[in-house]
Design brief:
This protein is mostly helical. Helix 3 runs parallel beside helix 14, helix 9 runs parallel beside helix 11 and helix 15 packs across helix 17.
Length: about 350
Amino acid sequence: MILVIISHWIAADRWINTTPNGVIGVDIFFVLSGFLISWILFENRKKAERIHTSKSTLLKNFYVRRTLRIFPIYYATIFLLLIFSKASASNIHGAFLYFVTYTSNIYFFKIKVWDGVLSHLWSLAVEEQFYLIWPWIILFTNKKYLRSVIVIFIFIGIAGQYLMQEVRMGDILTFTCFDAFGLGALLAWQLSFKPKELKKFYHVLSFFSAIALVLFVAGIVQESWSYVPLKTLISILSLWVITYIVLHYETNTIRLKIIWNNRVLIFLGKISYGMYLYHNILPRMLNLKLINKYVNPLLPDVLYKEHWWYLFIGENAVLLIIVSWLSYTLFEKRFLGLKKYFGYQNENSLQQIPAHVMGT
């Protein structure tokens, strides 16, 4: 999330954007999502099979819980943008059907151009489209074929990126992101069905991650990732980091304690969805027009004129956190509280992962 915000708020020619932060941030999110969603489904599938309960109930609860988490503020945002379409300076009226049906990635692929405040919503569309098929595969595929199916999805994602390599914005279509989701799911499979071999999995992954890192750095230097798709390299490196965290979390080292028990990170984790949803909207619709007009001119020249860039970042960060916190406290929590009526059978096992990570 933070990397995506950096890529949208800070000019591309700044040193901090030497790396493709937007792509990195989105791919990390996809890998983490593939891992968490798959692990939840694997664990609950095992228990359902053990106590002979219906998998359809798991499927229903999954979709209801995802709906309560994602839909309320997404649709509230979409309808507000529709009402204030002039201020948004976007084509929300003409493309409303795409956004209301979570197919905005197809819309952007079709028009071959981004659309201001709406641009970042493509990744949420990909996520929702992934949710349409993945739970069915995880819950109803024969257990002995599960890993093979996951590997197939990874290769579909890689092949899709090669196929769409010369097509503008082809990499925002859902099938080109299957490698990221699949790699996360592969870790979930390992953790659920072969936990004793997790160290071996990590060592093998470390070898591929070293190669991925070399190719990633070479790609930055050459400004081209022609050998292996950029998103695949990022996904492999992301999986390595997530696997390291999972492998060492139970040891509860001091370094990990500092991360897991950090109140700031816990707080930001709770409001992270809102921050992602609003981060591209607030600066364009409010900050530049209102704060620049009424607040900034009152500040000392050393801030307003000489350090406007840092002022812009600081003001946006404070505004985004406040709005996201209000959104979570006054709106989102009312829906999240309903999730208790649609609990997974094996939720206690999910406490192994910190709450602010699960909230992502």
